[in-house]
Design goal:
- The chain has helices spanning 18-31, 35-45, 52-69; strands spanning 2-7, 10-15.
- The chain is α+β, with helices and mostly antiparallel strands.
- It has one domain (2-69).
- It has a two-stranded antiparallel ribbon.
- Strand 1 (2-7) and strand 2 (10-15) form a beta hairpin.
Length: 74
């Protein structure tokens, strides 16, 4: 599904699955930053060969992997 974002004052869209979009929004909320701000940070840090949607998916994956590795197993 296409999602609209504003990066550096320019409108763009990314195609993200609902699960990734919800997780991305949860991360932004936890960091207390707007989704557009977090997307702009990811955009600025990504490799030019990597699309923005892919960069967001990888960001979400890394976030939850890091959270999982710091959580003790019951």
């Amino acid at each position: 599904m296409k999602r609209s974002l504003t990066l550096a004052g320019h409108r763009t869209s990314v195609s993200l699955e609902d699960e990734f979009w919800v997780a991305f929004r949860e991360i932004a909320l936890a960091r207390e930053v707007p989704v557009n701000t977090l997307a702009a940070e990811i955009d600025a840090a990504r490799d030019t060969e990597t699309g923005l949607a892919t960069a967001i998916r990888l960001f979400v994956l890394r976030h939850y992997r890091a959270a999982a590795s710091s959580t003790p197993v019951a």
